[in-house]
Design a protein that fits this description.
heterodimer, A: Pdz3 Domain, 4 domains, 6-stranded mixed β-sheet, 4-stranded antiparallel β-sheet, B: mainly alpha, elongated
Chain lengths: 590, 258
């Protein structure tokens, strides 16, 4: 609009100058006729060439050329006519076109780069041509509709095809990212669904109960969904919020069908998740949660309809078993966007002990928790193995102090560990590793001229060396439980990979680790997006990729024991607000 | 018009200021090459800071245009040419052609100094393909002519050598600032400065690898020149040169000669 205003001012100035010049002839005043051209050049330099402004570009060149004409009347007509063209072009574009939507071009560029540098193409059996043909039309549709949410969803679907926790599409601006997410995971019908270890599907986080997420909650979450949730509430949300509670549905109520279909019938429709779950078992664990956002007559991910001309999405038809063991059916009204409840459900199941990274918390007289939520100590040491001496000294001292105090068990809580520095991992692991030298990751050979990693004739990565670390065995006589889950990713996977093999370590969790541990890079997508993907191989001595899932989608980090996810766990987590997993380990695994 | 051009060139050959300026800017280019080339081979210099190849040449273009096209506007030489039967169009074209040709050539020659001087001293290196960079460099002539045309167009408005030298210097000084403040615009070929930058910008890929001492970083670049950049450089330059030529004449044709 700034340019519209400027353009308008210049046109007015031209007109005024023309009339003044009539009255008071002054040759140089005609220089002002160059102004539209200069402004146009400035605009093109700053915004780039846009075909929709072509009439304005041409006009701004024609106007100064009119100065060569002798007849004043012709000059005036040309100037006014072409100035009108500029005006119409600029205003029409500003008012009706707003901005260019070139999602398909953004996809094309990012796809080309990713195809060239993604390091798991063979291992994951990626068919790039198939993906391009499948998704380009979807991005073209999003461009045609000028639909940012559609673009976002298409990126989520595309990245989900890689079943790789490092391949993700992010919107950099938090407010836009949250807005898109709120419109991408369906509608809130007052509950989430989980699948128990026994195979039953039960309701959790049901609206109206003390520890559940509530549409009326004024708490704040880390991501910021709660801040904007009220914008998505339906007009009747307050009145109908307790529909499920009034019908007797509570945390643990068995859900038989959703909109007339069994829950697992929806699995193929879940084409993207809030975070990637490369391990198939993990994906199956989270899928029911996403089903709970699908309204009647709606596709997965469709959001609340703006117009209520049909019953599309207005409710979800839930078939459940009541307290008397009878099958019941209820229309659960739409309350708003599902994302905040989904986020809350995942957080309650996956969240770790809420203390600072690398700090300790005693559970009882024998067991202590070491929380590791990220693989980073400080900004100086990140990426530099020589700067971890202080951290290791401190950690060793703490371990020895707990040992001397009679503690026998350490639970290393790596739930929702977002990864970080591999040198942090090997320094922490070294404190607990058996005495002697241990191998961490092997280094892949890089071609310095092309900055790409080389494969040998068998298609395996060429090995260029290995990272090693020394074990201290500081907790030799005690037990170590690594508590992990599907959100323990990247360097979190790496630590599980290393420590899972130590003789006194047991890896446990409700879900397995994410299994995504190639080093990651990212590229900008348009002005607001960012595409991350695996770009540096993490390999073994044979050049085979380690940790990441292959085409079978099996987790490849050590895993010893599932923590059963049963009705007791649902009651413990969603009704009592307890840390069920820690309690289970203390009571059953030590 | 031929005689006017000959007279301008005759006068120009005897103008010491042009030689002095060229020598100073050439010396600057030598120093820039030597100091920047110390840490890297010349292909590395082109990859990391290609603006050293055109920043001082832009100064040269700006000052040369001012000296050539405005030289006769103070001493009435132009009036005598008109009195001698030459048309205003001939007067204008002769000065436009001479100033644009000489100024852009001087700038163009200067821009090759890092390549010509740096290669024997530091070697070309492996960061970029020499042939591709050379072709890119050849295309510099188009934005240099466009810049010279723009300044020539302005000179017929200003009609003062010293003012034009100041304007040329301002353009030269503003180059690094423009590139710094509006880096995204370097994809554009509309402004000659950005066209120069765009011609010597390379699609790069940066990645890292782990080593026992930490994280090592690597960078590669695609040297080849995209066809659309070649075409757009030529087409936009030609269109803008013609536009500046016409606009300059429109400004000049009915104004006083001095």
């Amino acid at each position: 609009m700034f340019y519209c205003f400027l353009e308008l001012m210049i046109i007015l100035a031209l007109l005024i100058a023309t009339f003044i010049n009539e009255k008071y002839p002054f040759d140089k005043i005609r220089v002002i006729y160059i102004a539209p051209l200069l402004l146009t050049i400035m605009r093109v330099v700053v915004n780039g060439f846009e075909i929709k402004y072509l009439p304005a570009y041409v006009s701004s060149i024609v106007i100064p050329l009119g100065m060569m004409l002798d007849k004043t009347i012709v000059r005036k007509i040309i100037a006014v006519a072409f100035m009108l063209i500029i005006l119409v072009t600029v205003f029409a574009n500003a008012l009706f076109v707003e901005k260019s939507y070139d999602y398909d071009r953004q996809f094309d560029e990012a796809f080309t780069t990713m195809r060239e540098h993604y390091v798991l193409t063979e291992e994951k059996g990626i068919d790039w041509d198939y993906l391009y043909d499948k998704y380009l039309p979807q991005f073209e549709t999003a461009s045609r509709h000028r639909n940012g949410v559609e673009n976002y969803k298409t990126w989520l679907k595309f990245t989900n095809e890689f079943y790789d926790g490092h391949t993700a599409f992010l919107i950099e601006k938090e407010s836009v990212a949250n807005k898109y997410a709120m419109q991408s995971f369906g509608n809130d019908y007052g509950l989430s669904i989980v699948r128990l270890s026994t195979g039953e599907y039960v309701a959790v986080n049901v609206e109206g109960y003390d520890n559940s997420y509530s549409i009326e909650s004024d708490e704040e979450d880390l991501v910021g969904f709660y801040k904007i949730k009220d914008n998505y509430l339906t007009a009747e949300a307050d009145e109908v919020a307790d529909t499920l509670k009034n019908a007797g549905i509570k945390n643990g109520t068995v859900i038989i069908k959703w909109n007339g279909k069994s829950i697992d019938e929806y699995y193929d429709d879940i084409t993207y998740q809030y975070f990637a779950t490369p391990v198939k078992e993990n994906e199956d664990f989270f899928n029911p949660m996403y089903v709970a956002g699908i309204g009647i007559n709606m596709e997965y991910g469709e959001s609340l309809p703006r117009t209520r001309q049909s019953d599309k999405g207005e409710y979800a038809l839930i078939t459940y078993i009541d307290d008397n063991g009878n099958e019941q059916e209820i229309k659960a009204p739409c309350l708003g966007a599902y994302m905040p409840r989904l986020y809350d459900t995942i957080s309650k199941i996956d969240g770790g002990v809420n203390i600072t990274n690398l700090t300790w918390k005693c559970v009882d007289e024998e067991t202590v928790i070491l929380r590791i939520s990220m693989m980073a100590y400080d900004t100086q040491s990140y990426g530099d193995p020589s700067l971890y001496t202080d951290m290791v000294t401190k950690l060793r001292g703490q371990v020895n102090a707990y040992k001397e105090s009679g503690y026998k068990n350490i639970i290393i809580d790596m739930r929702q560990n977002c990864g970080g520095d591999p040198f942090f991992v090997q320094n922490v692991a070294g404190v607990f590793a058996p005495i002697g030298e241990h191998k961490n990751t092997h280094i892949a050979t890089i071609n310095e001229n092309t900055a790409t990693f080389e494969r040998d004739e068998n298609g395996k990565y060429a090995v260029d060396g290995v990272l090693t670390y020394e074990g201290e065995d500081a907790w030799h006589d005690g037990n170590i439980i690594l508590l992990v889950n599907a959100e323990c990713v990247s360097a979190g996977d790496d630590m599980t990979y290393l420590m899972g093999e130590y003789p006194n370590v047991k890896v446990m969790g409700i879900t397995k680790t994410n299994s995504s541990c190639q080093a990651v890079t990212g590229i900008a997508v348009g002005d607001e997006g960012y595409l991350s993907f695996s770009a540096v191989p993490n390999i073994d001595e044979n050049g085979d990729v380690v940790i990441d899932t292959l085409t079978d989608r099996e987790g490849r980090t050590p895993f010893d024991e599932y923590i059963p996810f049963d009705k007791n766990s649902v009651i413990s987590i969603f009704d009592k607000g307890e840390d069920y997993q820690i309690n289970y380990i203390v009571e059953n695994a030590l | 018009m031929k005689n006017i051009i000959r007279s301008i060139l005759y006068e120009l050959i005897r103008t010491k200021l042009i030689y002095i300026l060229f020598a100073i800017f050439a010396l600057m280019m030598v120093l820039v090459t030597v100091f920047n080339g110390e840490d890297t081979c010349i292909s590395g210099l082109y990859l990391t800071d290609s603006s050293v190849t055109f920043t001082f040449p832009i100064f040269m273009v700006g000052t040369a245009v001012g000296i050539i096209s405005c030289a006769d506007m103070k001493d009435k030489v132009g009036n005598y040419e008109i009195l001698n039967g030459h048309s205003r169009l001939q007067y204008y074209l002769a000065r436009f052609i001479c100033s644009v040709t000489v100024a852009s050539l001087l700038g163009y020659i200067l821009s090759f100094i890092p390549m010509v001087l740096g290669m024997p001293i530091f070697g070309w290196g492996t960061k970029l393909d020499f042939e591709c960079v050379f072709v890119r460099h050849i295309l510099y002539i188009f934005p240099f002519i466009r810049l010279a045309s723009f300044l020539a167009c302005i000179s017929f408005l200003v009609k003062n050598s010293f003012a034009m030298i100041a304007i040329g210097s301002a353009v030269g000084l503003s180059t690094p600032m423009l590139l710094e403040f509006f880096p995204d615009a370097s994809d554009s070929v509309i402004l000659s400065i950005y066209n120069l930058k765009h011609l010597m910008s390379f699609e790069t890929w940066e990645i890292y690898n782990l080593s026992s001492s930490g994280i090592d970083r690597y960078r590669s670049a695609v040297s080849s020149l995209p066809a659309n950049l070649t075409v757009s450089t030529m087409v936009v330059s030609l269109v803008m040169i013609i536009a500046y030529l016409l606009i300059g004449y429109a400004l000049f044709r009915r104004s006083d000669l001095s």
